[in-house]
């Protein structure tokens, strides 16, 4: 039976899923991050199915969301959510590793939407992430930020910063932008899943990055896949959940 417990690391609430018979064993670890305006509980399906396969799964809450929020998420803080979560990941991993509960050679990271964007950015920073899964994410931080701003303008949102301020913000994202740190992705299995009808996070930025990686991965004989669901928008059907579980089971 899978046990799902509410725990905290510092001030980070999370859900911890594990097979009840393996609670105190050293296990491969998967951290799964929720999307924008979502909560950690929305990803329990992934956690349960992965824990059944023998993984220790942690679902952290992103700042201003769920237990860490007031019920109102400020869209202007999107990149604050992303960068703060990236910085918090080592705290979460170290907490469980220090207790002897993590096989540190088998750590995976995954997420949906904003969580997938966080996953790809984190992989530019931490080589202890051995396997990645991006569900509806963009690796191109700077280009995606520009896309967000354009979408806001089209919706009639007035932007109160100068071009100089914008460029300064984009420079802050550069170290985490996978498309300009592509060398960090040569030896780690990576799965992309995306809906072809997704307008919130269009798939083309991810697919372009996948194409850039393809030759490198093929040369190094490392697993790389891009699954494009022609019928899906900004949501992951059950078939996508199964693909995630299968990917980790095969490569982690």
UniProtKB/TrEMBL annotation:
Pfam families: Peptidase_S9 (PF00326). One of its GO terms (molecular function) is serine-type peptidase activity. One of its GO terms (biological process) is proteolysis. InterPro entries: AB_hydrolase_fold, FrsA_esterase, Peptidase_S9_cat. Keywords: Hydrolase. It comes from the Bacteria. Residues 48-239 form the Peptidase S9 prolyl oligopeptidase catalytic domain. This is Prolyl oligopeptidase family serine peptidase. It comes from Peribacillus faecalis.
């Amino acid at each position: 039976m899978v046990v799902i417990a509410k725990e905290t690391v510092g001030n980070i609430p999370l859900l911890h899923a594990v097979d009840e018979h393996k609670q105190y064993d050293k296990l491969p670890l998967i951290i799964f991050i929720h999307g924008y305006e979502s909560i950690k509980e929305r990803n329990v399906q992934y956690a349960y199915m992965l824990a059944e396969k023998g993984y220790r799964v942690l679902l952290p809450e992103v700042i201003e969301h769920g237990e860490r929020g007031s019920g109102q998420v400020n869209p202007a803080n999107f990149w604050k959510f992303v960068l703060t979560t990236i910085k918090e990941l080592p705290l979460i991993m170290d907490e469980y590793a220090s207790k002897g509960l993590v096989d540190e050679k088998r750590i995976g990271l995954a997420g949906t939407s904003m969580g997938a964007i966080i996953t790809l950015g984190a992989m530019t920073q931490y080589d202890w992430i051995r396997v990645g899964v991006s569900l509806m994410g963009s690796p191109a931080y700077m280009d995606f930020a520009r896309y967000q701003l354009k979408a806001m303008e089209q919706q009639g949102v007035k932007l109160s910063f100068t071009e100089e301020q914008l460029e300064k913000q984009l420079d802050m994202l550069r170290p985490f932008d996978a498309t300009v740190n592509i060398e960090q992705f040569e030896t780690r299995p990576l799965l992309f899943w995306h809906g072809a009808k997704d307008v919130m996070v269009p798939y083309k930025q991810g697919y372009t990055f996948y194409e850039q990686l393809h030759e490198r991965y093929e040369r190094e004989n490392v697993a790389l896949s891009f699954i494009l669901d022609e019928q899906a928008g900004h949501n992951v059907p059950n078939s996508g959940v199964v693909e995630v579980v299968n990917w980790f089971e095969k490569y982690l």
